[in-house]
Amino acid sequence: MLPLLPLLPLLLLLLPAAHGAVERVGYTPSLTKSPVLEGLTTGSTFVLDQPRCVFDKYSNADIWLVVALESTAANFSNSVAPGTAESAFQNFPDSVPAYMTLNATLANYPCPKPAGDITVLRVGSETSCSGDAARPTCNGPLPGPGPYLVKFLALEGSEPVAETGWSQPIMLRTAKSSNSISTTDGGHSAGMIALTTILSILFAILLAGLVAMFVFWGRRAKGSITFTPSPGHSALTGCPCPAWEGC
Question: Which region is the signal sequence (predicted)?
Fold first, then answer.
């Protein structure tokens, strides 16, 4: 035992580090693939699978989603507490490398998944608290197109106990500039569309002219009709003899 006495201070120093070790679980967050969803990514949100059957051994843990930019994720520390200025949504990304949101417990992520359960998380869906400093864990709209990285972090009290790996980079949708919008429609060029429009207008004018001409000549012909009796017949109906002979 005596030879171990000089090592005792070193062992005492290592105990807190061992106690604070964070387990890396074998799971990586990802965008939802099934079911196929409309709006999987939008201009300010994206949809993740819930971490079902991932943190089952940590029954007392609170599970948080950590959201970072790809360029700032490496600067996030697991020792940062949720609900503080150092992890507040309102300070991201200007003064904090990541924010913590969507806290849950294992009761929210039952394993196995009951039939019919909704098992997705939409990140960025809360608009009402995005500017509210009193809601630092707000799941507010994402401030730009990204790319973003996310991971889940399990805390027991204030102690981090387990984490997933970071996701693959996630890009949001961006509006197309007017210069990038195609000038074709169904394979037809803009010039072809303009030519078709002009020809349609000319055809309509020609058709209207033909209708007007037929109406005009029809009225003129009707106004010029005369009846000429044939020789040997009176203009009076029922009188077969010439008018000067009388009937």
Answer: 1-20
